[in-house]
Design goal:
By secondary structure, the protein is α/β, with parallel strands linked by helices. Helix content is 31%, strand content 17%. The protein has a nine-stranded mixed sheet. Helix 1 crosses helix 2. The longest helix is centred in the first third of the chain and has 16 residues. It is globular, with a radius of gyration of 20 Å. It starts with 18 loop residues before the first strand and ends in an 11-residue tail after the last helix.
């Protein structure tokens, strides 16, 4: 039987924590790993998972297909994949909801023990405010996977900026409430060759800022078609130190 793959960086997700956040770029395996762990929790502990996205116009926009594929790949027994939900041994195990249309509707799902938010970088502040108090059961957890967009987004402001120094230094952050990991393609031992070829192509053809966003989970605050790319600004920071000259003259800001 095929084995579930658990990247080393995501092993802290095995320990109880209210918020478990995985950030990173393409090919990191974060969504598949979370899906596998939720499937295992349904089997071993009877945990029901509510799978959310900010925008979900149909079931095809959810992680339903990913869960279905993993059930088949791992040859898991006892699951019944229906059109809009998944049962385990006849009991509800997974259901899906879009948050954007009616954030308050999430409150009706208070009997779930786990919420998994995919594409969490798109979540709005209203959805975040409605989501967090919904899970009231003892030991309930909120799991999120996302690739940060702007530093100003609600997801970034809530789960990255306050802990960014340690995240960048260690690749993870942990306290009594949070487990946050930064996981990328080079942390995924099962990173496929087809994605490796795509990554190498993108590294040659994308702007450095876009490449870092897509593959390394960095913010992407660059304005499309801007005259001055982000990397020019970054290169100018402390350039006098790097180049060995002392700035002179008036400081003019606009």
């Amino acid at each position: 039987m095929p084995e579930m793959l658990l990247p080393k960086k995501m092993r802290p997700f095995l320990e109880p924590k209210r918020y478990k956040i995985a950030i990173g770029g393409r090919g990191s395996g974060k969504s598949m790993t979370i899906a596998d762990m939720c499937l295992s929790a349904a089997q071993m502990q009877g945990i029901k998972t509510l799978c959310c996205r900010e925008y979900m116009s149909s079931i095809s926009d959810s992680v339903h297909s990913l869960l279905k594929e993993e059930i088949e790949r791992l040859e898991l027994q006892g699951f019944e994949v229906q059109q809009s939900q998944i049962l385990y041994n006849g009991e509800l195990a997974f259901r899906y909801v879009g948050l954007a249309r009616s954030p308050d509707s999430i409150k009706s799902y208070h009997n779930f023990q786990r919420v998994f938010v995919e594409e969490a970088q798109t979540i709005s502040s209203d959805s975040l405010k409605s989501l967090t108090p919904t899970l009231r059961m003892a030991g309930s957890e909120i799991w999120m996977a996302g690739n940060p967009r702007s530093v100003a987004d609600p997801f970034s402001q809530r789960f990255i900026k306050p802990f960014e120094k340690q995240l960048r230094r260690d690749g993870f952050y942990e306290d009594d409430l949070h487990t946050i990991v930064w996981v990328n393609w080079d942390d995924n031992k099962a990173f496929p060759e087809v994605l490796q070829q795509e990554r190498e192509y993108d590294k040659k053809n994308m702007s450095p800022a876009m490449y870092r966003h897509v593959w390394e989970g960095e913010y992407y605050d660059e304005v499309e078609d801007s005259l001055i790319p982000i990397e020019w600004f970054e290169a100018a920071i402390d350039s006098h130190i790097k180049l060995g000259w002392k700035a002179q003259g008036a400081i003019v800001a606009s």
